[in-house]
Specification:
Blueprint lengths: L6 E4 L7 H5 L2 H7 L3 E4 L3 E3 L9 E7 L5 H14 L3 E6 L3 E3 L7 H9 L18 E6 L9 E3 L2 E4 L2 E4 L9 H6 L3 E5 L3 H4 L4 E2 L2 E6 L5 H16 L5 E4 L8 H11 L4 E4 L21 H9 L7 H11 L5 H16 L1 H8 L7 H13 L12 H14 L4 H13 L4 H25 L20 H14 L4 E2 L10 H9 L4 H15 L4 H14 L4 H15 L10 H14 L3 H27 L3 E5 L20 H12 L11 H16 L8 E3 L9 E5 L4 E6 L2 H6 L15 E3 L10 H4 L5 E6 L3
Parallel strand pairs: 1-2, 1-17, 2-5, 5-14, 7-11, 14-15, 16-17
Antiparallel strand pairs: 3-4, 6-13, 8-9, 9-10, 12-13, 18-19, 19-20, 20-22, 21-22
Helix pairs in contact: 11-12, 11-13, 11-16, 12-13, 12-16, 13-14, 13-16, 14-15, 16-21, 18-20, 18-23, 20-21, 21-22, 23-25, 24-25
């Protein structure tokens, strides 16, 4: 198996192609990276900026350069000694442009007689496929016929053989599909989709034929040695994730395989999955959490209550999930409920919805994860005792038929309810302390203590040493450096609360949760261009679905939110507060990065984050990266420069480069895990551990409290016998932490000539 020492994630798009990625090979080699990790590379919707909207899984995307450029990328990476990890999307394909997807086009043309009818999860018993693309149902009057196609403005759809003739409306009525008003999609859709995105139709990869067709090309690249690893997107949406991974492993026995599985705190990865681990959101939660001061919780709770922001996390979460089942995934809930025997339709829908709302994790994998299923049923019973009989029937049928359609559909849909309700709604409503509102995070838990961090890191080394670890991804709500600076606020709850009161009095947003989120965002990304902040707040307001949403707009409120950035980005009081937290934020950034790069697992570096990167949620985190600046700084560091910790971010590049090069050149050092404990008055401010007996890592945590208490003073880090050298500075290491950390707040130590 080819397990990379590390990965570097790049976002491919028409403006950054296979050739552009190939041009990074030398830089990534010099940085110390083990493999380039690419966003989806198969053909996608024309113009797609992310690639998760695949339209043809049988060919490399032409807009990225096609097959020839893909082969050239592979050759360049091999020449540089790098592997290639590709992101694959088994759950869905894009149907936004029907003609771009030959499988979907054929299904629309021939209906259930199409040779591809089994590729998509269509409820054929409910009649024609409903396509919610019209402005409203009356827009059928705007249809026309052109060259054997039905046309609605720039949308084109195929005509079934022999259905030509008559008015466009008459032709429309003879097709295997019906165009309907877009507002009807959530309640009436007749095919399974990705979350609430009707343009992404679910694919039935549980069918061996469908698996072979949709995976054949990528598996050919794996067999040829061009691709060394696979990152699997959203396996929780599959009918049988375990079966899928077993088939994938059988066909790619030598590949490194990681699953985008979001684990709740304490939830294990299903042990029957033959994967190397997750994509690292569990590690992100643990690493970021240990830099958050739990003593800040009362102050932030008090501020949120004062401003009118709800602080009962589980109640907010339940409300948000119920909104999803009742308004967004209505069609999915109805389809599942229809499978429950001997219960009337309305009661069945309520029982199904309550069960998914109560799931303690994303989904269960019956018969694995039976405890999670039991917890969901118990939670539903507690919330709705009047549904006890229906819930008993649901529980009995699912347990009796764990591979049945009811159990399958309910489990694969529960993850959608959790993701939409929690990540995409609750995280924008429950804004008490936004640094915790991260994919895989637990906003109700304020920080992580050092001893728990050690326990979890040791568990990862014992169970999944080849799992990916991450701090920033294309899906994170904010980048690692944004989160690191925001974590400083937990050490200054009183000062921040007083500042927010002043600022809100002058420029408050008339929606409490967005107002508190906006101030946290402003200080953690300062200085930020008004346009970027405006786009973020617009998305945050619509995801919260409180005063406005993507479908029900409050134009006056949106205008007020849009005007807010221009009013605050030059505020001198805000600038002064940022100056107070900037350096502690840099300390947190360096600390969490060194921990991620050296702790158990395979660390991923998201594009550009080798320097400071104060990004927000997508698409903000997909902005172009200036590699010329990074190359120039890397050359200076490789020549021996020890940069200052300043706004350039060069100090972070030093940490990234030195840690990655050590992993690359001395992999034997990165095995095992044992806590190291500082001793002295400031011991709680040091997080330290060893990997092998000859490698030790030490970082500073809670830097504001450390400075306020008088610094390290007599605190020491007892090291095993021998002469230790700090790889970052080249100096001999000393147990005295005041001396060890006098240049950088982190240290990477090797013993002897290791």
């Amino acid at each position: 198996m080819t397990v990379p020492e590390s990965t570097y994630r790049v976002q491919l798009r028409p403006e950054f192609t296979f050739a552009d990625a190939a041009g990074l090979a030398g830089y990534l080699r010099d940085l110390g990276i083990g493999a380039l990790y690419a966003s989806p590379v198969l053909d996608a919707t024309p113009g797609s900026t992310h690639g998760y909207d695949v339209v043809d899984p049988t060919r490399a995307r032409p807009e990225l350069g096609g097959e020839d450029a893909r082969r050239e990328l592979s050759a360049k990476l091999k020449e540089a000694g790098l592997g290639l990890v590709v992101d694959i999307v088994p759950n869905h394909m894009s149907v936004e442009v029907p003609k771009a997807n030959r499988f979907w086009w054929d299904v629309l043309r021939h209906g259930r007689d199409s040779q591809y009818a089994a590729y998509f999860d269509v409820d054929w018993d409910r009649g024609p496929i409903l396509l919610p693309v019209l402005g409203d149902d009356d827009a059928v009057a705007d249809l026309s016929v052109d060259g054997g196609e039905l046309v609605y403005y720039d949308h084109r759809f195929p005509l079934a053989p022999g259905t030509e003739g008559g008015t466009p409306q008459e032709v429309h009525e003879r097709q295997h599909y019906r165009l309907i008003g877009w507002r009807r999609g959530n309640a009436e859709l007749t095919y399974r989709r990705f979350f609430d995105i009707t343009n992404l139709a679910a694919v039935r990869v549980e069918d061996p034929t469908v698996f072979a067709e949709t995976h054949g090309e990528v598996l050919r690249w794996v067999a040829a040695g061009d691709v060394t690893g696979l990152r699997v997107d959203h396996p929780d949406g599959l009918a049988d994730p375990g079966g899928y991974f077993r088939r994938l492993r059988e066909n790619a026995p030598g590949a490194w395989i990681v699953a985008e599985k979001i684990l709740h705190p304490g939830e294990p990865l299903p042990q029957s999955w033959p994967v190397d681990g997750t994509t690292g959101y569990d590690a992100l939660r643990e690493i970021a959490g240990v830099f958050v001061d739990p003593d800040g919780e009362p102050g932030f709770t008090e501020l949120a209550n004062e401003l009118g922001v709800k602080t009962g996390y589980h109640r907010v979460e339940a409300e948000a999930r119920r909104l999803v089942t009742d308004r967004i995934l209505v069609a999915e809930v109805r389809r599942i409920a229809a499978l429950l025997r001997d219960v009337d339709a309305g009661t069945a829908r309520q029982a199904v919805a309550e069960t998914m709302i109560a799931f303690p994790v994303y989904r269960s994998y019956l018969p694995e994860g039976a405890a999670h299923w039991a917890a969901a049923i118990a939670g539903a019973r507690q919330a709705r005792p009047d549904l006890a009989e229906a819930l008993e029937a649901l529980d009995a049928q699912v347990r009796a038929e764990p591979d049945g359609e009811l159990a399958t559909r309910l489990q694969q849909t529960s993850g959608m309810v959790v993701a939409k309700g929690t990540e995409d709604t609750t995280f924008y409503r429950y804004t008490r302390f936004a640094a915790l509102n991260e994919v895989g995070g637990n906003p109700d838990r304020f920080g992580l203590d050092v001893e728990e961090f050690h326990r979890l890191a040791a568990e990862r080394e014992a169970g999944y040493p080849a799992a990916m670890t991450t701090l920033t991804t294309h899906d994170t709500k904010r980048s690692e450096d944004t989160r690191a600076r925001m974590a400083v606020l937990a050490e200054l709850p009183g000062e921040f609360a007083e500042a927010v009161r002043r600022w809100t009095a002058k420029h408050g947003i008339d929606e409490p949760s967005l107002n508190l989120l906006a101030w946290q965002t402003l200080v953690s990304t300062w200085p930020i261009e008004p346009g970027r902040l405006r786009d973020y707040l617009d998305k945050a307001a619509k995801e919260a679905k409180l005063r406005t949403s993507w479908t029900e707009h409050d134009e006056a409120f949106e205008a007020a939110v849009a005007a807010w950035p221009d009013a605050v980005v030059d505020d001198a009081d805000v600038a002064a507060f940022v100056a107070r937290i900037e350096r502690p934020g840099w300390s947190n950034s360096l600390g969490q990065k060194l921990v991620q790069l050296t702790a158990p697992g395979v660390p991923d570096v998201y594009q550009g984050t080798e320097l400071w990167d104060f990004s927000l949620v997508d698409p903000d985190n997909r902005r172009p990266v200036d590699y010329a600046v990074r190359r120039e700084l890397l050359t200076r560091i490789a020549d021996g420069e020890l940069p200052e910790i300043d706004a350039s971010g060069a100090a972070k590049l030093l940490v990234v480069h030195k840690a990655l090069k050590l992993r690359q050149e001395h992999p034997s050092l990165f095995h095992g895990y044992r806590p190291l404990r500082a001793e002295g008055v400031a011991a709680e401010h040091c997080l330290a551990f060893t990997r092998s007996p000859d490698l030790a890592v030490a970082v500073t945590r809670l830097p504001v409290g450390l400075e306020a208490a008088g610094g390290w003073r007599d605190t020491v880090l007892p090291l095993p016998d021998g002469v230790w050298t700090d790889v970052l500075t080249g100096r001999d290491a000393t147990p005295d932490l005041a001396t060890l950390f006098d240049r950088y707040p982190v240290a990477l130590l090797v013993r002897g000539d290791a």
